[in-house]
Design goal:
By secondary structure, this protein is of the alpha/beta class. The chain is 29% helix and 25% strand. It has helices at 18-29, 48-51, 61-66, 81-90, 110-119, 133-143, 184-187, 190-199, 286-296, 308-327, and strands at residues 11-14, 35-38, 56-58, 71-74, 94-97, 123-125, 150-158, 202-210, 222-229, 234-240, 247-254, 257-262, 267-272, 275-280, 331-332. The strands form 2 sheets. Strands 14-13-12-11-7-10-9-8-15 form a 9-stranded mixed beta sheet. A 6-stranded parallel beta sheet has the order 3-2-1-4-5-6, sandwiched between helices. A hairpin with a 2-residue loop joins β13 (267-272) and β14. It is globular and about 60 Å long. The N and C termini lie far apart (50 Å).
């Protein structure tokens, strides 16, 4: 165990669902032993393998935050993010908050933005794809103008929601409950952030949301998004909870070539000089979460992470997508 990785003040994980358990495993593997957990929902006994990794389990906010954690990792449904971000601010903690940043966009949150600018604290919003080597390679290709100017891009994420955690009723999961911050737009917003990460801010957008298949839920299972970036690139994004197989891929068309990335098989195909170049990356996706943690703990310097301002911007985009879908028209951003 690396003594440099042990903090006198504990690390607090709020929520111990699948993503909370992942962060717990990764922290433990990095050598951290002073890890507390706040459990809010499932209070059934934990597996011994996880219990051994935890210093203290709390069931109340007062006790958990009373332990004065130096780092807080927020892994609860989106509707609770604002509450725990605020509590973490109050104790001057560094924060990792899973995506999206909030349930909805509010001017009230601009106060937090000011505080973070003033305090210069580390705030990581959990868009962990920003640490993926293929996405970073694509960003460098764009930056270095290797195959000309990017013209338009296509992204698709799809997953059959009732294939996740088959041992439980998927209709009770927060992903399909609007009041908890559910809906495919919010819970699967990585592609929106990837488009922003690669091509920058948005000038205007259009969104069409539907319930194509899962009729008895109160949020969308399909969304088609069109983003017009300030640099002239057009991004089309499809997100759905109804694909029969897990799908995650992107295509980018340039003035002198094409990039294709299929996340499922880790292939990146680049067309340039009238020839296809294909490469397979053998990469453990969990390393994106580890790099995210290292960024939070300042173990590894990385300027690619999604900070508070980025998280707020994506939240604003999601808010405008809601408006576009409701009004049935293109929305311009200021």
């Amino acid at each position: 165990m690396n003594k440099n990785n042990i903090f006198k003040r504990p690390i607090l994980i709020i929520g111990l669902g699948s993503i909370g358990k992942r962060h717990l495993r990764n922290l433990h593997n990095l050598g951290h032993r002073n890890i507390n957990v706040l459990r809010l929902f499932n209070k059934n006994p934990l597996e011994i393998s996880y219990r051994k990794k935890i210093s203290q389990i709390y069931t109340s906010d007062k006790d958990a935050f009373g332990s004065n954690p130096k780092y807080v990792i927020i892994c609860v449904p989106t509707s609770l993010h604002r509450k725990y971000v605020a509590k973490s601010f109050e104790i001057n903690a560094q924060i990792l908050c899973e995506i999206p940043l909030y349930h909805n966009y509010s001017k009230y949150d601009l106060r937090f933005k000011k505080k973070f600018s003033f305090k210069n604290k580390i705030f990581v919003n959990g868009f962990n794809f920003r640490f993926h080597p293929i996405l970073l390679k694509i960003k460098n290709i764009i930056k270095n103008n290797e195959i000309g100017k990017p013209l338009f891009s296509k992204f698709h994420f799809g997953e059959k929601i009732n294939n996740i955690h088959t041992w439980e009723n998927f209709k009770s999961r927060y992903e399909v409950r609007k009041e908890l911050g559910g809906g495919v737009t919010r819970t699967s917003s990585h592609e929106i952030d990837m488009a922003y990460f690669l091509f920058g801010k948005i000038k205007s957008l259009y969104c069409d949301k539907k319930n194509l298949k899962i009729k008895d839920i109160n949020c969308e299972d399909f969304v088609q998004i069109n983003l017009n970036h300030l640099n002239g690139v057009n991004s089309t994004i499809i997100l759905d909870f109804i694909s029969n197989t897990y799908t995650r891929k992107m295509e980018i068309y340039f003035s002198k070539g094409i990039i294709e990335w299929n996340f499922n098989n880790s292939n990146i195909n680049i067309f340039k000089n009238n020839k296809w170049y294909k490469k397979n990356y053998k990469y453990d996706f969990n390393l994106t979460y580890i790099d995210e943690i290292k960024c939070l703990l300042k173990i590894k310097k990385n300027n690619n992470y999604s900070n508070f301002n980025d998280g707020m911007y994506i939240q604003k985009i999601i808010h405008k997508l809601d408006s576009s879908s409701k009004e049935g028209k293109k929305i311009k951003l200021r």
